[in-house]
Amino acid sequence: EPFNAHEFVERLAWRTMGNKARNNVEDFDPWALHSAFEKMIKDLEDKNKQMEKKVEKLEQACKDEEKRHWQRVAELQKKNQASYSHFQGLDERINLVATKVVHLGDQLEGVNNPRARAVEAQRLMNYLSEFMSEEPLKSAVFTDPFQLQLAADIIQKLYQIALELPAGERFDNARKKIWDKYNYVESELIEEFRMAHHEGDKRKMKRVASVLSNFKGYGQCIEAFIEESQKGVYMKPDPFDDVLPLCERTSALINNVFSNPDAVMVKFVQNVYNGKLQSHVTSKLDSLEDPEDYLVELHKLYTKTVKLSEDLSQFKMGNDSFFLSKLTKHIFSKHLDAYIGFETKYLKERCSAHLQRYYEDNDHIKVKIQTGGLTDLRRDIQAKLGTMTKTNINIGPAIENYGGQTFLSQEVTISLLQEAKNAFKRCHMLSSSSDMASNAVQVFDVLVQYLVVEHIDYAVELGLQAIPLPDTKSQPQVYFFDVVGQANTLFHLFEKQFMDSLVPLVISSPKHSLCLHKKRELRENLEAKIDTGLDRSITAINSWVQKILAQEQKKTDFKPDDDNAILSMTSPACAKVTKFINSIHQSIRGSLDGKNVDIVLTELGCRLHRVIFEHLQQFQYNSLGAMLVICDVNEYRKCMKEFKISVVTELFEKLHALCNLLVVVPENLKQVCSGEQVAGLDRSVLLAFIQLRSDYKTSKIATMLK
Predict the structure, then answer these.
(1) Where are the annotated coiled coils located (predicted)?
(2) Does the pLDDT at position 198 exceed 90?
């Protein structure tokens, strides 16, 4: 532990004074403590001198050892320099000897090579003379079957010589005999290679293959190897399961036997693809008549082949990185060329079947929708005639609402999207990179036609036709809000698949912008029809409210003669209107979502405010009538407050404040008109409302307001 001088002094004092001095002040002896300190100081000085002497001895020993070490290093450096000088001399002598040996070898080779060529030429001339004679061959090399490989070497060289012999009767016979022997030896070597392969003799196969590499029939040797390698190996029902193990075994054998293993492996794999695999694919697909089974099996087989190609890419097969993909395209070329036509035809059939089954289950026969033109003109004319004449004039066929059926099905939509999703997957796998985008667009067009046009758009058009006319005789049943909610949900599902399935296939091509433009057009077209339908629905609702108020509200409702009228609080017309609006509000909340709810309720609330405001301006109000109308407006205000739309709530608050002007005593009207409750309202509106008071003239209110 580190030395602490303070603690050391404390312990020394403790030992010197003892317990008595600590307990009794009188027993404390300072001289004893002083003597102990002096003695301890002297002891420490002596100890310090001893330690200094010891340190000096150790330093001297280190210096002596360092000196001896550097002496040893110097001696070793001298020895190393001498060894290096000896090594240089020895290296120079070795280089001199090596130069002489190489020169001697070159001289020997220069003498031996011409001699060896002369011996070889003489040997070939002797064999050529045998072929030029009329007698049969006598040399053992041509007659002994065990010297076949030696005979192959000789006959191959004689074959090259025969090609250069001049044409003429003198050499024709010899040339023919050489060619016949050449073909015979070649066929025998191939047969010997077959036998060695059958016996599993790799060394013999390698020797024979090496000899045959100089013959024209080397390709036949490779073909024989490929044929023998595939005999009896396809034992499983699905040949795809046997190909990879076969290639692994064959690749190892090829590397041991052939001098050009990459080229041989290429031919072997090509034979497997164009042979066994292609016949399997053709037989499987040609036996299928059902379109769904055909497409599913085509996708399955193609996926298997692509997976197999990925597994086989581990083997060395030349420098063509697209070799396996080209083989895959080749064996499926017949089916891939016609794929997209078959895919779109099948997808149309499936989508049409789903829609037809749905409409049949709902006992609905699709009708031809007449959009725009005369249909919209008829609705507009009928609405204006009803408004102008206050009578029900019907200038067209009756409105059919199909009992509230929207003819929109989430189950059908999911089925259509699933069919399209499967089609997009097959398109991604079975289309070439150049055709993928255009093929995906064709699948997308089918989905648009059957899901968006023939299902969603058709249902929205039916919903538009089913919206009640403004001059309806009975309470309108507005089902279009349900149509809007369901149509939005289904279109969102369509957009999700657009992003998930289509965009990855077309994003790197010009088709991407075209698809985005088409989807935007579809959405804008749908939104335009929905806007039209919502406007018609709100118009029908307002017209019915107007009709209730016109029929139920009497001129005398707000000019009662007795006080008993106040007991009824709200008028029957107000009760019917609020009940109707509450049902419409619940329908909107239950059908729409998000900002659509706020937008529709805002428009509906503003139009209802205008209807009620104009309705109230048709009456004269006495004091009791003013109380009654305030009760009615208060009910309207409560009803509108449930919309939770600040603009609508503010409008009805202002309307309630206007009605309060009907009960204010004439003397206070001027003060109330400048108050906060009616702040922001135009003075002409205030005056117009005040003029509805029955005492407006008698009390000379106009004069008071000046």
Answers:
(1) 34-68
(2) no
